[in-house]
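Tutorial handout. Part one gives the primary structure; part two gives the three-dimensional structure as tokens.
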Amino acid sequence: MTFETILAIAFFALVGSVSPGPSNFMLLASGTNFGFRRTVPQILGITIGLSSVLLAVGLGLGTLLTAYPPLGLALKIAGGAYLLTLAWRIAMSRPTSRSTSNDGAKAARPLTFLESAAFQWVNPKAWVAALTAMAAYASAESPFVSVALITLVVAVVNLPSVAVWAGFGVALRRFLSDPVRLKWFNIVMALLLVATLWPLLK
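Part two.
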């Protein structure tokens, strides 16, 4: 694989990683509600989860989805249901400084590493990125090496790119220290997350 191809993959990954999408909206909300440090597992989960999707597609799962449409439909349904659940969770997020609120209810928390990684398997944007990257850059002459290299380049670019969204959220914390502002911010983030379902409906 040439250096020019690697640069093209890196640019593709950068554009895909920093552009708005379900994972980035969740990072923005998490950075605002919980701070950067508590959002780090979610950031890592996104990159590792996306990498696993890339590897799976590169090793043949993309072909299986094309050959068996019901499997793709099942992924869409699962993805939509999980995304709606996460949107509701963000809309209702009321973080506290303690592990439980005053009435004993469990306090809000950011997504864990595993939850964030698992979400990439039902994230429409992750699948589009993986299918596009492998179709455009994987080499028939050295499929395993090219798939591994594409995955590595995307991961290296994706990690700092998505972390920026959590950083944006942290930057908003002072402005959103007012509980009413934070409440409406979370509702708007939830609605934006729901709006990302539009590609699934086409």
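Part three, for discussion. Residues 57 and 63 are 8 Å apart (CA to CA). The chain has one domain: 3-201.
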